[in-house]
Design brief:
Order of helices and strands: HEEHEEHEEEEEEHEHEHEEH
CATH class of the largest domain: Alpha Beta
Distance between the termini: 46 Å
Structural class: alpha+beta
Radius of gyration: 17 Å
Strand content: 25-35%
Number of domains: 2
Length: 264
């Protein structure tokens, strides 16, 4: 049986190292170094080189594990244990010189995330958790907020960069929450949004068109901080189902609003 605590702390050290590389490159990065995966889906050499560094080091930590990575710098291969990596979550922010962006590494056992690290580069904040071990930010325990109602909550979300077929339904959700909540924020890094839910800066995060590498690490961090993670139906197809609600006790009320517009 693997030592999840030891592995998680090793991931955290690697994520910090990767974040140092990203910070160094940010000082000299220019927009002419950007590539397009889609009209609004950006990538750079920084994403790819960071992923290569992470993959190489993670192989040493758990040689038998497979990989699911955003930039496909290694063959995608699910195994009994699988690393799920976003080397630079928030690339659009990075290339425009805006915070926030993060390194995100999750470890999946079968279909369940059992360890995760989100390192927010610009604030030098490392969030991490492992199954049944609690959640932490820079070595201090973190917890979701106790808020139970929308009218006492601040929410994080994201906007789609493709597949706009459900946009009107999504805008219905935003419209209601704008009127009733403390506010809505769109930071531009799902991994960071989930880490901020875990440490109580937001009451909840919800989004669709998500990829597993966007959220894998955040899932276990929110769960171990006392939160709930589901898909838009309230089920458990949130890692590969491309939609998620991650929240503290306000989850139940928020989910009802999401369902009302998404499944009408």
């Amino acid at each position: 049986m693997i030592d999840l605590q030891k592995i998680t702390l090793s991931i955290a050290a690697l994520a910090r190292e990767a974040g140092g590389f990203i910070r160094t490159e940010a000082e000299k990065f220019s927009l002419d170094q950007v590539e397009l995966k889609g009209k609004s889906d950006l990538v750079s050499y920084v994403d790819k080189e960071t992923e290569k560094k992470l993959v190489s080091s993670l192989k040493d930590i758990l040689p038998e594990a497979g990989f699911i990575t955003e930039e496909n710098t290694i063959a995608q291969d699910k195994k009994a244990y699988t690393w799920v990596i976003d080397p630079l979550d928030g690339t659009t922010n990075f290339v425009h010189g805006l915070p926030t962006y993060a390194v995100s590494v999750g470890l999946m056992e079968g279909e369940v995330i059992v360890a995760g690290v989100v390192y927010e580069v610009t604030r030098d904040e490392c969030f991490y958790a492992w199954k049944d071990g609690g959640a932490y930010m820079n070595d201090k325990p973190i917890h979701v907020t106790p808020a139970t109602t929308i009218d006492e909550s601040l929410f994080a979300t994201g906007f789609p960069v493709h597949n706009f077929e459900k946009l009107d339904d999504y805008l219905g959700i935003l419209n209601e929450l704008m009127k009733d909540a403390h506010g809505l924020r769109r930071v531009g890094s799902a991994a960071t949004d989930m880490a901020y839910v875990a440490c109580g800066r937001y009451e909840a995060f919800f989004e669709y068109n998500l990829k597993p590498w966007d959220v894998a690490a955040g899932v276990i961090i929110v769960q171990e901080a006392g939160g709930t993670v589901t898909d838009f139906k309230g089920g458990d197809d949130f890692l590969f189902g491309q939609e998620m609600v991650a929240a503290g006790p306000v989850h139940a009320e928020l989910l009802e609003v999401v369902k009302k517009y998404w499944f009408k």
